[in-house]
Amino acid sequence: MSQSIAAPAAQTARPRLSYAWLGVVPFLLFALLFLVLPTMQIVVGSFRNAAGEFTLDNIVNLFQPSIMAAYWISIRISLASALLGCLVGFLMAWAMVLGGLPGWLRSPMLTFSGVASNFAGIPLAFAFLATFGRLGLVTLILRDWFGINIYAMGFNILSFGGLTLTYLFFQIPLTILIMTPALDGMRREWREAASILGASPFQYWRMVALPILWPSLLGTFALLFANAFGAVATAYALTGSSLSIVPILLFAQIRGDVLQDPHLGYALAFGMIVVTGIANFIYIWLRSRSERWVK
């Protein structure tokens, strides 16, 4: 009898919507207005002409030599800054976590990395111009104190190498933030077991540590590549139009230059979305693989 009474009560009970969802409404609204809808507009605009008709001309125009050259320069800068950022950032994270540096150094380094990884745009460009420009502080110190003229040796802050160097300011700290948890997850038992079996430190890193950290390193590299490929404010503020990369070319098409073509700009942005989307997908996939070892 009690079971027959409880059964209808269980059937009539309905799950209630938690009011906790109200806390994420601002985030969902922000993502919809500033991420989802603009992305949809870019994708749709890439396949339309000025009259609003469907066309593939904008995508075909991406294969012009000048545009392909801009993509190639952007890819090279992104690869160079991502590779150097991964290498230097990993060594710094290793020195901090496993290298025996004082423990008090960890907190300031992580705090600085959190700030520097988001420091970009006009302030970063001005900082590097004031440091490595023709009359920059480091340039003058090297010239007047050590007799080294870096500009006479071929360096130029407004060039491929200068922009890559500038990008490293936020690429290296981002690597530190990502690789520190991965290095923290390296268990001491693994090193002890390898040592007991007669492995040298080099063999331990080659056969145990690096295979475990490899997905994290590759994922970090993919994320840094996407981060550099989509950077526009720093590149434009630093080099202006002297270096033709995709973000600057896109900015020129949208803002109203003589050869203004907004729909070609949409196509350029669509191509950037595809490239960065692939890089981010690789990062997420590799990150999920590495988390199994960290746990």
Q: Which percent band covers the strand fraction?
A: under 5%
The largest β sheet comes out as: none
DSSP helix fraction: over 70%
Question: What structural category do the secondary elements indicate?
Answer: mainly alpha
Number of strands: 0
Q: How far apart are the termini?
A: 49 Å
Mean pLDDT: 84
Count up the helices: 13
The low-confidence parts are none
**Computed Rg:** 25 Å
**What series of H and E elements makes up the topology?**
HHHHHHHHHHHHH
Overall form: globular
Element layout with pairings:
Elements: H1 2-12, H2 25-46, H3 57-61, H4 65-97, H5 106-116, H6 122-132, H7 137-146, H8 160-184, H9 188-196, H10 201-229, H11 233-239, H12 246-255, H13 262-294
Helix pairs in contact: 2-13, 4-8, 4-10, 5-8, 6-11, 8-10, 9-10, 10-13, 12-13
